[in-house]
Design goal:
Layout: H1 2-9, E1 15-20, H2 30-40, H3 45-48, E2 51-57, H4 64-79, E3 90-94, H5 98-107, E4 110-113, H6 122-129, E5 134-137, H7 142-145, E6 152-155, H8 160-172, H9 174-191, H10 194-221
Length: 222
């Protein structure tokens, strides 16, 4: 896979931003590319050369939107941005396996989650479990999964500038990045693990039992 080979050559770059979503327009994947374009303007050439964006996600050649949007995104990196070398800082991967996704998350510096009003979304949770901060839109599922300024940032939807600002902040503040990475994993274990689910379910059941007992006692006293 040509793009995977390209990525492997650049895997030692320090700041790898990752986007994992299907190649569908509603996922607003172009936002991540525009954010990278704006990020360049905030960095020195030396730091910019350590940055890379990986666009990875579901792709089916039988689905016209997948094919068309994939090509649109590739073209965007070469013809519609101000950064002349942006295409050298962006890789596209299609239909990655779960194992590849985990490998990418572990190599990543940060996850960019661009959809607006998305459902719960498992990828931000997976990223946080892998100790990666998440920058996401302040809509939908991330409002529940991402703790703003603790495990990542929730920013204005459709705003490349907002994404780029937080990307730059994480690069410029390694201690913040490290703290968020630790907090991210802890949040997943505390809020979204099976053990957490079991404890929450147990509390709900106990509450229901207690309420039933109170109702029964009330009936007996009537």
């Amino acid at each position: 896979m040509r793009e995977l080979e390209k990525l492997n050559k650049k895997h030692r770059r320090k700041y790898i931003f990752l986007s994992v979503n299907r190649y569908e327009r509603k996922k607003d994947l172009a936002l991540a590319i525009h954010a990278m374009n704006e990020l360049k303007e905030k960095l020195t050439e030396e730091v910019w050369n350590e940055c890379h964006l990986v666009m990875a996600g579901g792709y089916d050649h039988r689905v016209s939107e997948n094919v068309e949007y994939y090509e649109e995104l590739r073209e965007l990196t070469t013809t519609q941005t101000s950064a002349e070398d942006l295409d050298e800082h962006v890789s596209f991967l299609r239909s990655i396996s779960d194992r590849q996704k985990i490998q990418l998350l572990r190599k990543a510096f940060c996850l960019l989650y661009t959809p607006t009003n998305e459902h719960f979304g498992i990828v931000p949770v997976e990223a946080m479990y892998c100790e990666r901060p998440v920058i996401a839109t302040n809509t939908g599922g991330p409002l529940e999964t991402v703790a703003n300024e603790l495990t990542g940032y929730l920013v204005e939807a459709n705003s490349a500038s907002a994404f780029a600002t937080k990307m730059h902040h994480l690069i410029a503040n390694p201690l913040v990045h490290s703290q968020m990475s630790r907090e991210a994993r802890s949040r997943v274990i505390d809020k979204f693990s099976f053990l957490s689910f079991k404890h929450k379910l147990n509390r709900i059941l106990l509450s229901m039992i207690n309420n039933d007992e109170k109702i029964n006692k009330g009936k007996k006293s009537e």
